[in-house]
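Lecture 7 notes: from sequence to structure.
We start with the chain below.
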Amino acid sequence: MHIDEEILKKLEKLSHLRIDESKKEEVIGQLSEILEYVENLKELDTEHLDSFFSTLPGNTPVREDIPSNDPSIPKEILENAPQSEDDFFIVPAIIE
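Predicted structure tokens for the same chain:
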């Protein structure tokens, strides 16, 4: 897949990011490199691997899941949101 101005424009809209005109060519190049790398991964033969395969000895380490009850965390997160109301993010509809 090749990234062009039209695709970049769609990505900007979906991600709600604005890319400066002077940086667009650089971003297109970087995104194209990322997609080329992902295409290379398709060449790997993974048919014989289990779905829980890990390259780490002893499998992937899992951390203990301990919930946090710090009430300042949600407030801090919402302070960084472009829009929020009543402890919720306000986002534009993405289904057209």
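Points to note: The chain is about 40% helix and 5% strand. The chain has a mean pLDDT of 87.
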